[in-house]
UniProtKB/TrEMBL annotation:
Region entry Disordered, spans: 616-644, 778-822
Name of protein: AP-4 complex subunit epsilon-1 C-terminal domain-containing protein
SUPFAM superfamilies named in the record: ARM repeat
GO biological-process terms attached to the record: intracellular protein transport; vesicle-mediated transport
InterPro entries, per the entry: Adaptor_Complx_Large_Subunit, AP4E1_C, ARM-like, ARM-type_fold, Clathrin/coatomer_adapt-like_N
Pfam families membership: Adaptin_N, AP4E_app_platf
Chief location bin: membrane
Comp. bias regions, Low complexity: 793-802
GO cellular component: endomembrane system; membrane coat
Amino acid sequence: MSGAHLSKDFFELIKNIGECKSKQEEEKIVSNEVLALRQRLSESPASIGLKRSKEAIVRVMYVEMLGQSADFGHIHAVNMTQQTNLLCKRVGYLACSLCLHPEHELITLLVNTMRRDLKSSNHLEVCASLIAVSKLVNPEILPAVIECIAELLEHTHEVVRKKAVMALHRLHLVQPGCLSSLIDKLRRALCDKDPAVMGASLHILHALIDETPAAFKDLVPSFVSILKQITEHRLPSSFDYHRMPAPWIQVKLLRILASLGAADQRASEHQYEVLYDVLKRADTGINIGYAVVYECVRTVTSLYPNVQLLETAANHISRFVSSDNHNLKYLGIKALASIVGVNQKYALEHQMVVVECLEDNDETLKRKTLDLLFKMTNSANVAFVTDKLIAHLRVTTDVHFRTELAERITLLAERYAPDNAWFITTMNAVFELGGDVVQPETAHNLLRLIAEGSGEDDESDTQLRLHAVSAYYGLLQKPHIPDVLMKVVAWTLGEYGYLSDEFGLEALLETLCDVIDRQFTDEDTRCWLMSAITKLVAQMGAVPDGAADVAKKYTASKSVHLQQYCVEFLALAQDHALMAEVLPVDASCDDLELDPSLAFLDAFVAQALANGAAPYVPPSERRHELHGAGADGGSSGGNSSGALRFSEYADPQESVRAIGGVNFESLTPPGGAAAGLSTGLNTAGIAQRWGAEGYREAGPPIASAAPTPPATAAAAAAMPAANAPPVQMAPRSLSQPAQQSERERMAAALFSGVGAGQTTRTVSASLGLAGAGAGAPPAAAAAVGGGGGGAVGSPVATAGAKPARDKKPKSAKKGANGAGGVADGATAGGTAPAAGAGLGDLLGDLLDLDLSSPTAAPPMAVAPASGPPGTLLPGTLDLLSLGGGGGAMQPPAQPLDALLAPTSAPAQPKPSVLHGGGPPFAPIGGSLGNLAGLADALGGMPALAPTLPTPMPAMLGAVGGGGAMQSTLGAAVPAAPATPAAPAVHAPPVGAGARTSLAMDGCVDVLMAQRLLADAVSLELTFASKTHSSLRNLTINVEPPAQLRVALSCAAVGADARGHRLTVPLLHGGQAVVVIARFDCADVPTPQMRVPAFVSYMEDQLGKVEGRTLSIQLYLSTEHVLRPKPVSTAQFGELWGAHPSQRKFTVATKTIATPQACMQVMEERLHFAPVQVIGTECIMCSAVIGVGATVLVHAKVGLMNGSAVEVTVRTKDNRMGEGVQRLCTQVLAS
């Protein structure tokens, strides 16, 4: 370190830090260095000199890395980047990259310097600037540098091209969608002559492919060719690692191919040969070779299945799991978990190894084995797997692992429970062991099952409740019960405690009175216990002293809710007949008749008014009274009404006139007051509509808009069950020796249901629902079950509400209690925003627009989109029915040829201006044996726009329309009743898409068509049989996230829909059936919502029954749940102040030049209703289906010489704002 470039002081500093023997000694040295640097940098640059300044910046970096703050040197680092000396410039960029963050206030000072250096002829300066951009870029400066970086993709130096690609990847991570105009350049980077540039481009292409795989399917041959050249050692030897050619590039290519080939037979077939070659060449016996082999195995399991390739992958997995090296065994278990998703038979030969891994001391290996068990679970081994998971839940202390275990046990119990009693016992164990990590929705699912029963008959439901009561009464004897389990116990015993013959109501009541005095984490737990005590007292016919004492004791509780329960109990105890009427026996699922007008308060209100109380004044009238008072008091100088005054003050004694504000009251300022101002805003001749509380009309007051409850779709009527019972599968057990070891017995229990007796093949597929919107990346979400159902496999989450079930005599009402979303509270009738919270910040202040100038565009009102119910919105397309254009959809369960044939000659539609016109759809012919191109043919239909709006029943045809349908299964099949139209944010349907292949195997093709309705997203899933054999118990189980609700319906004979599960008892060979899945929002949606679905059926071929499974992934994003919400400008102003979550960002664009163009794009692609255009700004409004959450958007066009749009999004939830920001960025940048 004795180089001439180091000063003696710097050398001593490094030496002293290295010789420190304690942290305190080091901190003392660094603190002294901070003082010395502060003094040195406070001197003038001329006196310090460039060399000493550079050294000072390096010492600042040392200080910051050692934990001390040296923020006084940040501005000097920024100044250092502007030096012409290359070494000083690079030191300045390095210091900025290490010491500053993207949101730092000094970043703005770097923008021009970085832009200048990006255009420099010295490639070293360009590289230094690119490194800094990758570290410091943020959404505000992104439009300023993106064009400069894009030009560097054609630079003569390969190192510059590589760093430019890496910088663009960083820009994409900062603002997804910003590279939509650079896709072609990034594709060319893949073919760069330098392998380093090609390797760098794989990362950004992988990110883009994960968002929209379909747009890059044509690159599969290119990726395959590159991978083949790498495996043949055609890259320079500098890319080799331990004689393995470019292993990290191979891994990235394999991941890309896995994304492109998922559920795509054509893309997968291009990859089979090169994957086989990679598996053979990478098997070199070294660690890096194992890494490539493992990634190749994962890719093989992601593609469309190929038997030979799967067998080769299984052989490599065998070598991993049989290895003594724990790292390789870990890889083997992970790879085994991937391949069992395709076919569980590959796990049979490793069953003993799996059992050994469960007992291994390596915690990571044990957890990964549990993941494998979760994926291998079926109805035969669910008890064994859940026992193992519960055993680990009992001993682990990791909160995240406990949460994951609780979720998995719950999911397996709901999906594969052999009977209801086992389900309740298992859930009790989960609540008891992991009550602190169990979600409340899980408890509500269990309560709903107990309340609604299995739906088979009253006797089985009574036995279920009796079993639950007995189990929960036994739990009360334990000293400690988690709060979530105690709530379940209290509710169940209060509702059904009278059913038990083991104990009487008196003993049960006494036990609950003792339990209520225990310590609880959640104070609401005592409220549940007090509610149970009240119900039991109502059933007994008398009020025991113990119950009365408990109620009196807790009337002084600090919990207001508990006080209310106790006071109500004491009040009802005075009239036992009234208590019995208020709390009837077994009435938890009865419908309650509500009086929205609250007529029972009329007498109270009348008495209050008679006593002199002030009558209620609606907010709209209150607002105009405030305006009137302000206007009357404007000339006097007083303000007796307490409202803000907007007139000028009296003339002061000084020469400078004080201005209190601007008069927003009328079109022309009264008395010419505003004209007399010497300074301030010139508002002469301008309609001044903005005041302290927001926008106000010059005419009559605007009527308050009452919140519109969201549409709640009723579930389709269930069809009669088939007479023939479903075929029961009896799994063939493995042959066992006379005496089995403990591990062999565990293996037999684990792998039961897998093997020769029942082969399960799973094809995993995923599809992004690309509707009429921007093609947002797939999104992620668990659903709150609506109405109906009650089966174990139908999870419901009605958080905060007690379970609802109709009594057996009222079974016709089942499904009517599905919880709908709550309309957005921020309506025109809501409280006006406070002063200063209007749309001043919305329109970049409207008052800054000089509308009186000849060049300024006057405010232009845009009529909101509207139409009769059942019509399509502008820019969207009607769904092509299976029968051909314009015809009604053919009924389900018909021969495939008939299903694909047109029912009538299609009307000639007008070509779509937005999506491109095309010739009328030609029906597809073909026989049952020639279905290879079915998915491609249906997925490739030309999009047609209807000549006239098509009502919803006609669009659904046999699926949702009226009338009877003739089925080939026998008698006429009545059509499922159409869902009653309910008021929604916007009535017309939003659009539809062509049918796309989701998944297929040897027996069934699964096709999907998407339809965006006014109050829901409708997915039409077509299950087409490709075999002559009959398929029994075709079951689809949808598992929506918490943000979504789903209702399943089907018009096939005997179709049984229960919650999230629908079963078709019989599908004959060569026929098809259509299942409708309607989604709406139960909570504010996230940007990405994943909806997994599982399809299972039994193939009956010549008396041999074989079980099969398909795994499907559906994706919904914020785009799919937005609908236009027409509002006036006044209502927009009120909503703006009521939505505090704001996101403000800038989008680089070449296509949006006017606010009208911006509004048109947002209306057509994101379903926003235009509100108003003012100059270069525009405002739009949208709402979320189901919950009614409002999204407000303000856009300012023409920034940066017309190359950027500034967008402000306001919502009530930050998650919603994130999704809308991502969508706006994509559609405006494209």
